[in-house]
Design brief:
Blueprint: E1 2-3, E2 11-14, H1 24-37, H2 44-50, H3 55-66, H4 72-88, H5 96-105, E3 110-114, H6 118-125, H7 129-132, E4 138-140, H8 155-162, E5 173-177, H9 180-188, E6 192-195, H10 203-206, E7 211-212
Parallel strand pairs: 2-3, 2-5, 3-4, 5-6, 6-7
Antiparallel strand pairs: 1-7
Helix pairs in contact: 1-4, 3-4, 4-6
């Protein structure tokens, strides 16, 4: 675990894909299948450009980067149909439920900040209505008009912080992320960020995070001035 200097926080913000839910492998294999049909390869270089981005940006980047013979909207519809059943079965990542229940029990205000849109987010969270009820609010970047720019821009985190009932200073918000773009967005918003990196994030890029963990099970709340798990 890598640790830099930390300061106390009062609110927490969670990413969804790859952080709370194990969806990255679903997207990886699915995009490989879809792009293979067009004679294209889902390279690590392309994936790094789209991880954490708004859905509309993802499909635009894929079409432009790979010169696909479809429009971004056509690709979006094809992907939604392909991923639908798999996303409904998405499992929680290690430590996710434990951490969410801890925050709820300790009455730590928490919110979800995901680049997903309404339809895909509903699919992913269909099985987790109880855990979703723990969130003060959810900001869906691909559907929210106030989120003008996707990650690595800080828009989604500014919006999420502002919508807490007490609108905390961004410095009091702790973000949990898995992607490099997400970490950059949180930092640009003036927030500390705990990173549980997905496979493509190099050790050098992991240095952008405040703390890097192997899984959410490794999180130490008191490092950020939060109550211990057993208090």
């Amino acid at each position: 675990m890598q640790q830099l200097s930390t300061t106390p926080v009062t609110h927490v913000i969670f990413d969804l894909d790859g952080l709370l839910l194990d969806t990255e492998s679903i997207y990886q294999h699915g995009m490989e299948d879809i792009l293979r049909k067009y004679g294209k390869v889902y390279t690590d270089e392309v994936k790094l450009k789209v991880v954490g981005s708004k859905e509309q940006d993802t499909y635009r980047i894929l079409v432009e980067e790979l010169n696909l013979p479809v429009t971004p909207d056509e690709l979006a519809k094809e992907c939604f149909a392909y991923f639908k059943e798999a996303l409904e079965r998405a499992e929680l990542k290690p430590g996710a439920e434990k951490l969410l229940r801890y925050c709820h029990k300790k009455k730590i205000p928490m919110a979800l900040a995901t680049s997903s849109g309404k339809e895909t987010c509903a699919l992913k969270l269909k099985r987790y209505s109880e855990l979703c009820s723990f969130f003060s609010h959810m900001v869906l970047g691909s559907s929210d008009r106030e989120v003008v720019n996707g990650k690595p821009a800080p828009d989604i985190f500014y919006v999420t912080a502002r919508r807490f009932c007490d609108s905390p200073n961004p410095k009091k918000c702790l973000v949990f992320e898995d992607s490099y773009n997400g970490v950059l967005a949180a930092k640009a918003a003036g927030m500390q960020v705990v990173m549980v990196p997905e496979g493509l994030v190099t050790p050098e890029k992991q240095k952008e995070a405040t703390v890097v963990l192997q899984t959410l099970n490794d999180f130490v709340p008191e490092m950020f001035g939060l109550p211990r798990y057993d208090d």
